[in-house]
Design goal:
The chain contains 5 helices and 13 strands. The chain is α+β, with helices and mostly antiparallel strands.
Length: 182
């Protein structure tokens, strides 16, 4: 998730696109924005989710990408933690068409309010499914027109497809790798 401006000066789209940021940053109307990441739970969940979509590529008809730039407006670029594309989708270096799913994993510094704002922007761009996972609270949310909706049944899915992500399984794997046993 994006958190704070990286530069105090205006940066053009051209400069943003020609500069290497480590880790990659987002861009919001002339402002380069750092993203919170790099902590174990965030990184591991991102890996698990990308692997889940990769392992099910043929059965689900989709593939996942981590930290892929998505241009959601002329002067706005997001870098979702994981984005999911249908097989046959454009594979340009920077996506300019909405992915099927944009998935954000909250870091401890992120807030649901900020996540809700970002979800609204993804939905306005045309992303069909926006999911937010909060590893600290051990919950997931779906992006809906009114904001964030907590996933009560423990499953994130794409209706009309076999895609199902079981939240409890993600956290069980995370606990196992961290040596915690429920």
């Amino acid at each position: 998730m994006a958190t704070q401006p990286m530069h105090e000066r205006f940066v053009s789209v051209e400069e943003y696109l020609s500069t290497v940021y480590e880790p990659d940053c987002e861009y919001d109307n002339g402002v380069v924005v750092e993203r919170n990441l790099g902590e174990f739970e965030h990184a591991y969940l991102q890996t698990l989710l990308a692997t889940l979509f990769t392992n099910n590529m043929d059965a689900w008809g989709v593939f996942g990408l981590t930290e892929q730039r998505v241009q959601i407006a002329a002067h706005k670029f997001f870098v979702p933690d994981v984005c999911v594309l249908r097989l046959g989708s454009s594979t340009d270096d920077i996506l300019s068409e909405p992915p099927l799913v944009a998935l954000e994993i909250l870091s401890p510094e992120d807030t649901l309010r900020r996540a809700g704002k970002k979800v609204a922007e993804y939905l306005a761009f045309g992303v069909e499914h926006v999911w937010v996972i909060d590893p600290n609270a051990r919950v997931a949310y779906r992006g809906v027109a009114s904001g964030l909706e907590r996933v009560a049944d423990g499953e994130l899915s794409v209706p009309g497809t076999p895609i199902i992500v079981r939240i409890a399984e993600l956290f069980e794997k995370l606990d196992r790798i961290r040596g915690k046993h429920a």
